[in-house]
Each structure stands twice: as structure tokens, then as C-alpha cells.
Amino acid sequence: MINRRTFFKSLCASCSLVLVQADSSWSSGSELAKFAPIWDAHSHLHRVPGETPEERITALIRFADRMEVERLILSQGYSAQMHPTPEQLREENNRVIRAVRLFPGRVFGSVYLSPSYPNFSLQEFDRCVRDGPMVGVGELEADKRCNVSEMDSIVERTVSMHAPILQHTWLKAYFLPTGAGAREPQDQT
User: Fold this and answer.
1) Distances in Å between the alpha carbon of 73 and those of 38, 41, 120, 147?
2) Segments in 22-103 forming alpha helices (H)
3) For labelling alongside 32, which of 64, 100, 126, 148 has CA 20 to 30 A away?
């Protein structure tokens, strides 16, 4: 079984190899895959056929095989909710855990958290990452900005485990003309 440290060392080694080989020319994707394994760093189970997490990850693995994707980092299960409750977060995390357990070493999980529930998020991080099979925070619900104090404890816990964080921004900054061709951000709060 691969652990978090080995996982990220492999990721860094793969990225380094791509840089070293960058000046070479490959005639096909399969030649590239021999030198630089392809990893999907942000996968979901929604919009994948199947009734259960196991059926959906099996279909996703078939797609990955066809595209020569070696490993998947999976997050958020398959019921995308705006502003999910703690119960919905846990249900999605349980779906990811079920999928990860079906393909250990090939599929890695990222925990789904929300700064709207900092205490719950810390408990869920511990359950899924510290004590469980997940390797990082793969969905950090963007119902609050990344600089709010509710994020501090989540980020501190994640950093203490040397785990990565993926935070959605949902592209909430819009640029509108404000004079002779100038563009300034419009606050969306």
C-alpha cells in the first residue's frame, strides 16, 4: 500500500521527469505515458454511469485506462450540492472512501470540507485523512473566501499533516470596464 509521502514523492518525480524530457519530441500520447505517467489530479464520480460508488469508479477507471491515465485523485462523491450540510459532506466523503478502497494504489481520495462548519471539518479531516485512506483536502467548499478566520483551523490541520488543499474559487471575481480600457475587479460580496 502506498502512503501519502510516497504518493507525493512519486508525483514530484513524475513532474521532474516531464521537465527533463520536455525537449524531446514524442509521436503519441502512449510514448509520453512511458516517460511521464499521467495523473488526473481532480476527478469526480458525478456524471459517471453507475448506481453505487463502486460501479461509478469502475466506469471511471475504464475511461482512465482508455486515456492511459495511471492514477486518479477523487473528491466529492457525486451529489454536488451548493452549501452542503455536515451530513451531506460526510455522505460524499463516504462515497469517495468506498471508491478508493476498490482501487487502492490507483485511486486516491480527497476529503470534502466546508469552512461554514469548522469543527465538523476538523473531525472529518481526521477521520478521512489522518485516520483514513485520503491524501488531502480535495474540495474546500467556497461558500466563504479563503482568507476568513473559519479557514484557519482547517488549513493549520492540513498543513500539519503535509497534505495539499484544493480550494474552488468559482470564478467570483468579475472584471468590468471602468474608463479608457481599464479593468478593475468588482466585489461580489
Assistant:
1) 12, 5, 23, 25
2) 29-35, 53-66, 86-102
3) 100
The CA distance from 82 to 87, in Å, is 13
Distance of alpha carbon 10 from alpha carbon 15, whole angstroms: 9
Domains of the chain: 39-168 (3.20.20.140)
pTM of the model: 0.72
Q: Give helix 86-102 / helix 53-66 axis angle, nearest 10°.
A: 50
pLDDT tens-digit readout, 50-93: 999 999 999 999 999 999 999 999 988 887 777 889 999 999 99
The amino acid sitting at 184 is: E
pLDDT tens track for 142-182 = 677 778 899 999 999 999 999 999 877 665 555 555 555 54
SS3 content of the chain, % helix, strand, coil (to 5): 45, 20, 35
**Rounded mean pLDDT, 6-14:** 57
Secondary structure element (H or E) that encloses residue 184, with its range: strand 183-186
